[in-house]
Amino acid sequence: MNKKLFWLTVLFFIFSFFLLNLFEPVSARPGGGHGFSSGGSGSRGFGSSGGKYRSQKIYIRGLEKSVDVELIKLILALIIGGSILYLKIREADKGQLLSVSSLKTNPKQSIDEQVEAFKQKDPDFSLTLFLDFASNLYLEFYNCHGRDEIINLIPYISEKELRKASNKMIRIEEVVIGSISLYSILEKNDYDIINTDIYSNYTVTTDLEKTKYELFERWQFCRKKGVSSKNPETMRQLSCPSCGVEHKFIAISKCENCGVDIKPGEIQWFLNNKNVLVKEKFESSVSHVQEIGTDFKTIFQKNIQEKITVFCHKNKITEWDKYLSHLKKEIISRSFLEIYENWSKNQLEPIRFLLSENLYRSFGFWVKIYRGKQLFNKLENIQIEQIELVKIDLDKYYDSITVRIFAHCYDFLQSSSGIVVSGSRTDLRSFSEYWTFIRKSGLEKEVIIIGENCPSCGSDLPKNGQSTKCDKCGSTINNGDFSWVLTMITQDEVYRG
């Protein structure tokens, strides 16, 4: 490489370093107000899926101006692109011929359009199930990191990632996913590829110290072309893709139970590669953030009227307006008020069955921090002003709806002794959020599950919040089989549709 090119490359990295250190993340509560700095959403937002786990407002040090997270993504893209360019130049200087495989994707398509296009190839594909699968693999991957049990994930992890995760010098614990969403769907050679963005935090334990981190990662999942998506039961289990038995791998890719040699991607999705885009130490100092986005224009799905027609036909709904009114009043409003009432009390047990598994874990993470600091995020006199249906997604197994909820309340942090730490108990605070619910496709009767009885057999449900299954019939209550379940809360200032 000539000297001029070398110094241009050096200057590029110096500039990139300056940009990354120019910005300092601050917290965004579930609607923007209170929160935990560097810890994502505090009060009303929980770092829910799709709403991003970390703060989506970035403050320039020394200035009272905020920058959208998309700018940070652009900066990261420039850094990554510059790094790739630098490596290609190095390879070219060495006289090596670089072969770049063709990636087939349409850059003009939104992620929703990419999902719909992928369903044309794989009618059994369910975004809900895929995200459940990705979440389960993420949690299991890090919980098994540095442990012998990592071998049981052989069918779902590339050899490279498996090798790195086998390092027994590092243990990872207390893994919590705050947000998981698709970044892109594309093709490469003989594989379908889904790139997935995951915001999370975990604790790293070594012989010397124990440190909690927050992360933004991009995981690349691959699967051989032509392979169809599995049913809900199979997608939610990290068992042998051939026989379904769990934790029976004794050698590279060979199942002890059925003896089949499972190659990653031949039957199910597998983690091919993961990139940690942001990793920093987690701090949980209390802060107060100004509400942003409430006056932003609502983002509606482009073809929402068409989706409504398909939804009504699929579910045999003859009076849409009547059904929508019932949905807003009996499901969405009741869920919204019930969830925030219990959130204000730092208790999640009564709303265990209203939340998806990942969202419940995220809520639990923040409640644990509040309890540790002897704080309560009070949302008093909360009133819903308006509910707008903005999106409907349908697949073979699940229906999904997203609504924008406008509300106001007295929003403040209060100590266990009753002292207001932040916010105000006298000034009403208006906010809006996008809430996403799922339910089993074709469900004929839907009721909000707040009571104490199993909707399947009528038996008493577990009251300790540790289980979502009925002890008598074994039904899982919070997976959408019986009613709409909240899976995602997205802040209005970051919602992109």
Count of β-strands = 17
N-to-C series of helices and strands? HEEEEHEHHHEEEHEEEEHHHEEEEE
Which bin fits the share of residues in helices? 25-40%
The CATH topology of the largest domain is what? Nuclear Transport Factor 2, Chain: A
Q: Give the CATH class of the largest domain.
A: Alpha Beta
The count of helical stretches stands at 9
Description:
This protein has 497 residues and is of the alpha+beta class. It folds into three domains: 3-93; 104-281, Nuclear Transport Factor 2, Chain: A (Roll), CATH 3.10.450; 286-491, Nuclear Transport Factor 2, Chain: A (Roll). The protein is 27% helix and 29% strand. It has helices at residues 3-22, 69-93, 111-121, 127-143, 159-165, 232-235, 304-315, 320-343, 357-372, and strands at residues 23-25, 34-36, 57-60, 66-68, 103-104, 171-188, 191-205, 210-224, 249-251, 254-255, 270-281, 286-288, 375-394, 398-415, 420-423, 429-440, 485-491. It has a five-stranded antiparallel beta sheet, sandwiched between helices. Strands 13, 14, 15, 16 and 17 form a five-stranded antiparallel beta sheet that branches. Strand 14 and strand 15 form a beta hairpin. Helix 1 (3-22) runs antiparallel to helix 2 (69-93). It is globular. It starts with a helix and ends in a 6-residue tail after the last strand. Residues 19-43, 45-69 and 85-103 have low confidence and may be disordered.
